[in-house]
Amino acid sequence: MSSIPSLLIRNARILLPTGEFLVGEVQTLGREIVRVAPEILASDSLPVDKEVDAQGLTLLPGVIDPQVHFREPGLEHKEDLFTASCACAKGGVTSFLEMPNTRPLTTTQAALDDKLRRAAEKCLVNYGFFIGATAENLPDLLEAHPTPGIKIFMGSMHGQLLVDRDTVLESIFAKGDRLIAVHAEDQARINQRRQEFAGINDLAIHSQIQDNQAALLATELALHLSKKYQRRLHILHLSTAQEADLLRQDKPGWVTAEVTPQHLLLNTSAYEKIGTLAQMNPPLRSPHDNEVLWQALLDGVIDFIATDHAPHTLEEKAQEYPNTPSGMPGVETSLPLMLTQAMQGRCSVAQVANWMSAAVAKAYQIPKKGAIAPGYDADLVLVDLDNYRPVLREELLTKCGWSPFEGWNLTGWPVLTIVGGQVVYERGKLNLEVRGEALTFNE
Fold first, then answer.
1. Which of 80, 303, 308, 377 is catalytic?
2. What pTM value is reported for the model?
3. Is 211 an active-site residue?
């Protein structure tokens, strides 16, 4: 056997970078893919440590989830890096980008280094961490490394991470060239609406307080500043038809946007069905918003998909609105949700793989990710597109233990997940010895 681990996947339906499928074989050596071919002859093959028969299964690039909240440090009762990365592995997510609203906040190099150290010890998948903007930490935003970018909460946040003054926003856009990712909600409008609806405990009011206009106002401002300073901008979890229409009319080449599965597949009717489990920021919208967002994704106006995995305990969610926290988990269900949509004809499997891997790697300039080709990292997921099974609470690995999609019957569940050439998840079992690596970004 080779001293460097080698894996051979046979008889898979392989998604090629062209978007076409090849029934064939993939061989890895160490962390890299070395061969993709209809058949790898014994005479051409390297010594193999593990062989996988993928008959009837589809091999896709591992999912890169570009927006998650994994709660460590400081809020580990909701989730931690180990439990979250286990959930990632089960869901076919081989890399994630995590947000700065932990305790302490990720607003300094020291806090970023602490997260990287924790992840190196605990994470079964690859990882990267955003640096969070405050009104005072511009030097940190310019110098922090490695990071996919600067996260700005323009609204729906309290404390230091809320950056809602135009002068502060402009100072961040004006200096440096690092990617800026924005949570685009206008805090002044939210505050005004909160006063208008004060005393109403009906959960559905959440989508009226943080309404479409609040999202549009913030996205318009971020777009204005991005154009003024030619600054690379990414709009997180786009949620409204109005924002999609704005970008369709006016989206510079350096601007990207994402959408979550829940903003595509859930709407305000979910409040009656699942209560506060449907509460998130930005809120769920109308069926019309669902349709416009879908079309924008299909047309390339929206570039890719993120989960905004933001877990809270069931006890926390059981409180009465507005005392309930906003957010829902998603890393275990995002790929099956989207592949189910593909099998129902809403999009193609190749489009799903692009939205959940290749396009993310391109936007964040993550090298050697997002494709099944020689020289790329062996971050792969083998999925079953022939069988359906429901989302069951008792099978979830996220520490919070629930999903807004509980009971949904989905296909495309991962059978096997590979991180850096090592099998981290196989048919219900995790390999807890595997560790991911810190992502690099060609800034």
1. 308
2. 0.97
3. no
